[in-house]
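Something for you to look into today, if you have time. I want to see for myself how the chain folds. Leave the record below and I will have a look.
***
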Amino acid sequence: MPIATIDGIKTNYEVIGNGPALLMYAPAGFDATLDKWKTQGVYARIKLLEHLPKKYTCIIFDRRETGQSGGRVEPITLEHLNIGRAHLMGGCMGCCPVVAFGVAYPDAVLSMILYWPVGGAKYRISTHKRFADHLAYVEQHGLAGVISLVMQEGKPFNAEPRGGPWASVIKSDRAFADAYAKLDVQKYRQTVAGMCRTLFDRDTSPGAEPEDILRLEIPALVIPGHDASHATSAARYLEECLPRAEYWDVPVAGQTEETAPARVLDFLQKEAAGTG
């Protein structure tokens, strides 16, 4: 798979299909690798990548600190491929950077599809516990202990909280692991605690501030989940805040390969025709 290295940051990505650009932020939280569009939960069932590439150029990638990527990807992939504007799609935690991208670069975004946005009280509580478990492990074993655990277990932050949010990069990039081991532990703990506090600071869908979202004149399709990580309230929050949002009010059981790709394609084609 191609690798884009810009400003020293590596991004692992793949381009599938033909047509207008659709930049897809993968689901699976802190293990959001590009393959999750085919293997993760509801996405394995609805098989978007068997349908969307027939009409769109789908750009999928390992999100920051997952898989083979090592850095920020928000504006990189479009620039690397010489694409001026694109539709954006996020699944799960990928909805957060999609909305943030829209707020930061509204002129580059044609539309947004937000599939199963994360959020809810249970999600915030469980995520804070994951960070706390990592910090407790750092306190007991130090950063060298974190590296040893990651190299031994090989699991991402989602599966093994003690390894921390940089576990995938530690595993895939020896130079990063060496630099990580030399960090000041106290400053590191402050950075991680601050990241947890600011990234996951609400019981709605985390990310961009509501005041910014309320001003966002980008067409959006919101598709709700319904479990401990994807509260329906998180999807309703985005529907409320996004002025041009459509809400697909279909229960999880009704989101199938027959219905979901068709609904997404209908939204995209309607926006392309200017009838949204």
User: Anything to note?
Assistant: Residues 101 and 261 are 23 Å apart (CA to CA). Strands lie at 3-6, 9-16, 21-25, 57-61, 86-91, 109-115, 220-223, 245-247. Residues 121-153 form the longest helix (33 residues). The chain has eleven helices and eight strands.
